[in-house]
Design a protein that fits this description.
Layout lengths: L3 H8 L16 E3 L2 E4 L16 E7 L4 E2 L2 E2 L1 E6 L2 E6 L2 E3 L7 E9 L6 E14 L13 E9 L4 E4 L11 E4 L2 E2 L5 E2 L4 E6 L3 H7 L12 H12 L15 E7 L20 E7 L2 E5 L9 H7 L18 H7 L5 E5 L4
Antiparallel strand pairs: 1-2, 2-17, 3-9, 3-16, 4-5, 4-9, 6-7, 7-8, 9-10, 10-11, 11-12, 13-16, 14-15, 17-20, 18-19, 18-20
Helix pairs in contact: 2-3
């Protein structure tokens, strides 16, 4: 938890500021340092953030291709499959497909569920640089959404750091609390401007085997990338904030390595993580997030420093003392 006087001394009173910037992809600044964003899915109803709206997921039912129904729609290893009659379509053969998504208006009680229509305008193979585990090609989908207000199609994804509006399909959904679930009825298109695709691009492909429970690691990564300390879907970071992420996955892991014995210049250990958020905390990556305030925000997870049982950790061994199964950790600058 935040212990500001110690940090100022340790950093020589060097603070890092950050103006508002676009959400980046998983660009590596130097070994192990990744840029992270706070847009959970990167899909917005009108290409911009809409107050009170939440993407629930894309339906496997209701998909069409050139007016014909697509049946048995499902996602395998980052690729959408669907049957049109006796033919199974996948890869680039699904350009032109239409999908319906479930969205919720959270401003009403109970939340109002409605549908939104999307179409695939392009499909391309993912760049091999985003395959650190060498587990094979996946596909990136260019999506457009139908907007009733303008009676036209608009990009569904916010542009990523390279200016592209792309998405990767994943066989799970995430709600407004950041909780992951698997349903036979819904799947996700995670835009490359958001953390679901970002964590996939860091190598945490939920479907791969041989490294342990990668689906849980990917979910944990979404908590890390958004600084979702409480595990309640509330982000405590800003777009473009640099963090150093690594894991302790079994051989042939890790997927993301620390990159050295010491933190990158100016960075300090921030936290250890699991699917529920931060296991413990050394400091928040943004100093305005005071340790006591964070503990008050998530009393079921964190205890403020100085109190009995304070969940403070400054190294991996401290984290493992709280949760022996924690496998993801990060360092961060102290941003003001």
């Amino acid at each position: 938890m935040t212990r500001v006087s110690l940090y100022w001394a340790a950093l020589g009173i060097v603070l890092f500021g950050c103006d508002a910037v676009e959400t980046s992809t998983s660009t590596t600044m130097q070994p192990g340092i990744n840029m992270q964003g706070i847009n959970m899915q990167g899909i917005n109803m009108q290409g911009i953030n809409m107050q009170g709206m939440a993407m629930r997921g894309f339906r496997v039912d209701g998909a069409t291709m050139n007016g014909a129904v697509l049946s048995n729609v499902h996602v395998e290893r980052g690729e959408v499959f669907g049957d049109r009659g006796a033919n199974t379509l996948h890869g680039t053969s699904l350009v032109g497909a239409h999908f319906l998504a479930e969205v919720r208006d959270l401003s009403t009680t109970p939340a109002t569920v409605s549908s939104a229509e999307y179409r695939v305008t392009a499909i391309a193979q993912e760049d091999s640089q985003y395959d650190p585990t060498n587990t094979g090609n996946t596909y990136l989908y260019t999506l457009e959404q139908w907007v009733d207000d303008t009676a036209g199609w608009q990009p569904a994804c916010l542009p990523d750091a390279s200016g592209q509006n792309l998405a990767i399909p994943l066989a799970a959904t995430w709600d407004e609390h950041g909780d992951r679930s698997v349903s036979s009825a819904l799947f996700t298109f995670g835009c490359t401007s958001g953390v679901i695709a970002k964590c996939y691009r860091w190598g945490y492909r939920p479907w791969i085997t041989g490294y342990g429970d990668i689906a849980s690691m990917h979910w944990t990564c979404t908590r890390v990338a958004r600084a979702d300390y409480c595990g309640n879907g509330v982000s405590h970071t800003h777009n473009g904030t640099a963090i150093n992420v690594w894991d302790k996955l079994p051989a042939p892991g890790p997927i993301q390595s620390h990159g050295g014995l010491l933190p990158p210049m100016g960075m300090m250990f921030e936290a250890g993580w699991n699917t529920g958020g931060a296991v413990c905390l050394s400091h928040a990556r943004w100093l305005l997030d005071d340790g006591a305030a964070l503990a008050a925000a998530c009393p079921d997870r964190l205890v403020a420093p100085g109190l009995l049982g304070g969940t403070v950790c400054d190294m991996v061994s401290d984290v493992l003392g709280y949760d022996p199964n924690a496998k993801m950790f990060n360092e961060a600058y102290l941003n003001l």
